Amino acid sequence: MGRLDGKVIVLTAAAQGIGRAAALAFAKEGARVIATDINEPRLQELAGHPGIQTRVLDVTKKRQIDQFASEVDRLDVLFNVAGFVHHGTILDCEEQDWDFSMSLNVRSMFLTTKAFLPKMLAQKSGNIINMSSVASSLKGVQNRCVYSATKAAVIGLTKSVAADFIQQGIRCNCVCPGTVDTPSLQERIQASPDPAEALSDFLKRQKTGRFASAEEVALLCVYLASDESAYMTGNAVVIDGGWSL
């Protein structure tokens, strides 16, 4: 018996990183996973895995989200993963950077949650998991101004949804990772002027001396998606190797 047997899980940004690891972990535990992403070639790599079906979706487009939601008869878990990491202080953040980060990191969760929540309310049960970060209201991090602002907003959104719908059978929690070894992180390291120095700087802030793996974060997501966490709602769950200590 899998920990997620019989559950239908929709997740965004499933083509790589934490989203991909979570999709695979959910399916391994018996869930029927609907994995979405804007990156169709990478998303198709998941299509052959048992229990996973794929759907190309741009989570910044309300019309696409509403159409997708209308095609899903039932879901037990919505996992909002999509996000972007902008590097820089407030002085390095132009208005278009702010608007794009807010659109992808926060507005997308507003749109998907608003589209799927009525189905959960009709079922009188539902579980929403949002991807936040330690770089948020939890910890001030250098050169993460707009990113931290968006992830703080995700925590606020999570707690609001949890408080508003707790008596209607809805749970809502968010995951707050530290530094995770993902393709996104590696791309940012390689794009820096000195990749070796950038890697060293990232590792120095990790008290455990290493990054988290996407699979480690996915295991926490399995717990939050399962009935084992049935008494948890409105929580910002930290998994950061002690970075926020």
Automatic annotation (TrEMBL):
<keyword id="KW-0443">Lipid metabolism</keyword>
<comment type="function">
    <text>NAD(H)-dependent dehydrogenase/reductase with a preference for cyclic substrates. Catalyzes stereoselective conversion of 4-oxo-L-proline to cis-4-hydroxy-L-proline, likely a detoxification mechanism for ketoprolines. Mediates the formation of 2,5-dihydroxybenzoate (2,5-DHBA), a siderophore that chelates free cytoplasmic iron and associates with LCN2, thereby regulating iron transport and homeostasis while protecting cells against free radical-induced oxidative stress.</text>
</comment>
<dbReference type="GO" id="GO:0019290">
    <property type="term" value="P:siderophore biosynthetic process"/>
</dbReference>
<keyword id="KW-0520">NAD</keyword>
<dbReference type="GO" id="GO:0016617">
    <property type="term" value="F:4-oxoproline reductase activity"/>
</dbReference>
<comment type="similarity">
    <text>Belongs to the short-chain dehydrogenases/reductases (SDR) family.</text>
</comment>
<protein>
    <recommendedName>
        <fullName>Dehydrogenase/reductase SDR family member 6</fullName>
        <ecNumber>1.1.1.104</ecNumber>
        <ecNumber>1.1.1.30</ecNumber>
    </recommendedName>
</protein>
<dbReference type="GO" id="GO:0006629">
    <property type="term" value="P:lipid metabolic process"/>
</dbReference>
<dbReference type="InterPro" id="IPR036291">
    <property type="entry name" value="NAD(P)-bd_dom_sf"/>
</dbReference>
<comment type="subunit">
    <text>Homotetramer.</text>
</comment>
<dbReference type="InterPro" id="IPR051122">
    <property type="entry name" value="SDR_DHRS6-like"/>
</dbReference>
<comment type="pathway">
    <text>Siderophore biosynthesis.</text>
</comment>
<dbReference type="InterPro" id="IPR020904">
    <property type="entry name" value="Sc_DH/Rdtase_CS"/>
</dbReference>
<dbReference type="Pfam" id="PF13561">
    <property type="entry name" value="adh_short_C2"/>
</dbReference>
<dbReference type="GO" id="GO:0003858">
    <property type="term" value="F:3-hydroxybutyrate dehydrogenase activity"/>
</dbReference>
<comment type="pathway">
    <text>Amino-acid metabolism.</text>
</comment>
<dbReference type="InterPro" id="IPR002347">
    <property type="entry name" value="SDR_fam"/>
</dbReference>
<dbReference type="GO" id="GO:0005737">
    <property type="term" value="C:cytoplasm"/>
</dbReference>
<keyword id="KW-0560">Oxidoreductase</keyword>
<keyword id="KW-0963">Cytoplasm</keyword>
